[in-house]
UniProtKB/TrEMBL annotation:
<dbReference type="GO" id="GO:0000398">
    <property type="term" value="P:mRNA splicing, via spliceosome"/>
</dbReference>
<dbReference type="Pfam" id="PF03371">
    <property type="entry name" value="PRP38"/>
</dbReference>
<feature type="compositionally biased region" description="Basic and acidic residues">
    <location>
        <begin position="201"/>
        <end position="218"/>
    </location>
</feature>
<feature type="compositionally biased region" description="Basic residues">
    <location>
        <begin position="249"/>
        <end position="266"/>
    </location>
</feature>
<comment type="similarity">
    <text>Belongs to the PRP38 family.</text>
</comment>
<comment type="function">
    <text>Required for pre-mRNA splicing.</text>
</comment>
<keyword id="KW-0508">mRNA splicing</keyword>
<feature type="region of interest" description="Disordered">
    <location>
        <begin position="178"/>
        <end position="266"/>
    </location>
</feature>
<protein>
    <recommendedName>
        <fullName>Pre-mRNA-splicing factor 38</fullName>
    </recommendedName>
</protein>
<dbReference type="InterPro" id="IPR005037">
    <property type="entry name" value="PRP38"/>
</dbReference>
<keyword id="KW-0747">Spliceosome</keyword>
<dbReference type="GO" id="GO:0005681">
    <property type="term" value="C:spliceosomal complex"/>
</dbReference>
<feature type="compositionally biased region" description="Low complexity">
    <location>
        <begin position="235"/>
        <end position="248"/>
    </location>
</feature>
<feature type="compositionally biased region" description="Acidic residues">
    <location>
        <begin position="185"/>
        <end position="194"/>
    </location>
</feature>
<keyword id="KW-0507">mRNA processing</keyword>
<keyword id="KW-0539">Nucleus</keyword>
Length: 266
């Protein structure tokens, strides 16, 4: 009897709300000690006290895939089906980030697509860290990454999420307005950074021109060492070494006239 859904609960996506969680995972949740001791007899009002106590998010952990407290509370919310106003307060609170994550996942499971985009997109500016417990161990994520996973992926916290249409499709049907920038002053800061960067570039341009002109002048002006070497080479002639040391100039071949005179005398 304790594991049945509330008789006043309405069907979600054409089925029992608890069936959003797979049967194997539901059976594991029903068998946990946390479900039997702390989730029995919870209502929409007393659920808040249990949600404040959780310190991580995730579906299952360990080698035998035990369900986390986060998953137990999610299944309890699917069972009692609290009002939308309570879930919106879960999402809008800024003091307890795990309560916000729990409300976001529940709304993603049971909410209509326009409501999902309306209440979850403002969480993109929340960069709080979240501890995630998985079967591999502990990891760290952020609220904005967790929300992006809910809006873009089909699987989160070891459960298959209901199909969510793309945002542009809802905009074409006039079910959702255009996306607004929730980061106040972000565009102004970007404009200021762009203007300051352009001013710095314009200030650096004349300096670069002056440096380039100086380099050209230095290259065009002859150095004193090169001018001295040219003068010495001109004075010595075509051969850079002295004639006395040059083997070609020191040895002279006899001319034809001298060789003929020697033959006649002989």
């Amino acid at each position: 009897m304790a594991n049945r859904s509330d008789p006043m609960a309405q069907e979600v996506h054409g089925t029992n709300p608890q069936r959003i969680v797979e049967k194997i995972l539901r059976m594991k949740v029903y068998a946990t000690q946390y479900w039997k001791e702390y989730c029995f007899g919870l209502t929409a009002e007393t659920l808040v006290d249990r949600a404040i106590e959780i310190d991580h998010v995730g579906g299952t952990y360990g080698g035998i895939r035990k369900p986390t407290k986060f998953m137990c509370l999610l299944l309890k919310m699917l069972q009692i089906q609290p009002d939308l106003e309570i879930i919106v307060e879960f999402i809008k609170n800024e003091e307890y980030k795990y309560v916000r994550a729990l409300g976001a996942l529940y709304l993603r499971c049971v909410g209509r697509p326009p409501e999902v985009y309306k209440y979850l997109e403002p969480l993109y500016v929340d960069y709080s860290k979240l501890r995630v417990r998985t079967f591999e161990g502990w990891t760290i994520t952020h609220v904005d990454e967790f929300v992006d996973e809910l809006l873009t992926e089909d699987y989160s916290c070891d459960i298959a999420l209901p199909h969510l249409p793309k945002r542009w499709h809802l905009e074409q049907q006039n079910l959702l307005g255009p996306r607004t920038n929730n980061a106040d002053g972000l565009d102004d800061d970007d404009d200021d950074d762009a203007s300051s960067a352009s001013s710095e570039r314009s200030a650096k341009k004349p300096e670069r021109g002056r440096l380039a002109s100086r380099e050209c002048e230095q290259r065009s002006a002859p150095s004193p060492s090169s001018s001295r070497a040219r003068r010495s080479s001109r004075a010595r002639g075509s051969c850079p070494r002295a004639r006395s040391t040059c083997p070609r100039t020191s040895r002279r071949r006899p001319t034809r006239s001298t060789s003929r005179s020697r033959r006649r005398s002989a």
